[in-house]
Amino acid sequence: MTSPFQFSRRAQALTSSAIREILKVTERPEVISFAGGLPSPDTFPIARMQYACDKVLREAPQAALQYGPTEGYLPLREWVAARLSRDGASIRPSQVLITTGSQQGLDLLGKVFIDEGSKVLVETPSYLGALQAFSLFQPAFAAMQSDDDGVVVDALDDAQLAGARFMYVLPNFQNPTGRRLPLHRRQALVARAAEAGVPIVEDDPYGELCYSGDTLPSLLSMHPQGGIYMGSFSKVLAPGLRLGFVVAPEAVHAKLVQAKQAADLHTPSFSQRIVYEAVQDGFLDAHIPGIRSLYASRCQQMLDALGKYFPSQVRWNRPAGGMFIWVELPAGMDGGALLAKAIERNVAFVPGAPFFAVAPQRNTLRLSFVTVPEARIETGVRVLGELLQAEIAAHRGAAA
After folding, report:
1. CATH number reported for the structural domain that contains residue 305 in this entry
2. Separation of alpha carbons 93 and 83, rounded Å
């Protein structure tokens, strides 16, 4: 029977998230999952959220349950602006748009900036959710050369920058690699982008998660009129609230507001008021150090296990914050093929190839450690180490 539904070309090009597909497997309790980039539920401030919910419903129930402005709840926008007004930046509430998760921010930016064939510069590799969101609008991705410290600014030539709508960068403990852009590269990147007239979209969900508490100035603070900044409450409060924000020059902000009006009118008033009540008195400054401590401990547990069980031919980084470790396998190996064997032994991770906009490097993978208890971290890494030993031996035998 012929279907009456005729999908658009855009819809026909849609693909599922590789991570979301893997997470379906990890719902089984016996699976040790290093796959999802999910914050640890151990960090959720349940009592604080209960307090905030009760206060909102007690003091402003009608307003909390009513429609609200597209731009977002003004006291929350004022709080965001004040928190980001540091390191020389002066952010106005009129620049802040509250979004339904930072993923909506990516979608809105794609809508207002990308035409079919528009050049968009991304890191190598880059955040899969951003690649998915932008791909819907059919850009021409251009991969910026990157190394263990992030974008190699000296490699950005005039031809690559010419005509780019924006460059998309995660400077702090990037998903998927966990790397952080050093201060001197931040300064150089902002200067190069300003010289070329290319806006920077700075995505910063992990900036507060430096294990030592040492933070670096945002790219926005270095060039506030030429930058767009994205943030989220998911990694420091609760992802289920789906609350993020975009800070942009007011001309860009106005277009984002128009795009959001067409998408969902506004982010839920109730969630916004709950978050404001939870954070407005400085709660995050007391709460975040506990997240950093837990994540630092689990990161070190995984690093110790990798050193103990992984073959010497495998390379990985040592992140100073965030939620991820990036692993490079010997040339010729395939993270996707390894995943299939790992799942048979009840261990999951994310192959690295989907994180590349162009020329995927299949001998890579991402490990997330924050949701896994320390004893299970060691067990899961040991299983992966055994599989890698066998794969490397098989490749060596085939080469011989």
Report:
1. 3.90.1150.10
2. 11
